[in-house]
Amino acid sequence: MKKALYAGTFDPFTNGHQDILLRSLSIFDEVTVLVANNRAKTPLFSAEDRVEMIKQCYVNEPKIKVAAWEGLVVDYAKKNGIETIIRGLRPTGDFEAEFQMASMNRRLYHDIETVFLVTEGENYYVSSSLVKEIFKHGRDVKEFLPEKIHDWLIKNGKESL
Hints:
Layout: E1 3-8, H1 15-24, E2 30-36, H2 47-57, E3 64-69, H3 73-79, E4 84-89, H4 94-108, E5 113-118, H5 128-136, H6 147-156
Parallel strand pairs: 1-2, 1-4, 2-3, 4-5
Helix pairs in contact: 2-6
């Protein structure tokens, strides 16, 4: 079974994230969406809430697993027998940082490979940070989010601002 890991903060999980995840299912038998706790960021939602939101989106997709992790992503992969990390690339300068991270992950866990998927044109400019900023200013963000994520954001997001 070919298993992969798709890690990120996912605060919130956007259509760009969904695009990368769904496209990765054509390559891998199972993809774990790993909600990472990045101490450098201040999330709108707790890791538990983000896991629950994403699980609700894919409740009928047995090839998608969702988990949270506090440590290094590469350690989660090694612990769970996952040898591929999926990363999405936008044409916004992502490559240098992503290449550096992939190289370090490989150094820490020799069996790990990183697969880069290029974000589709309609999502290339979408980021969780921008979606949160737009939402904080009272604008509608429905076009940038999967429906269940948008519904969760509307129901629970204002109290988190």
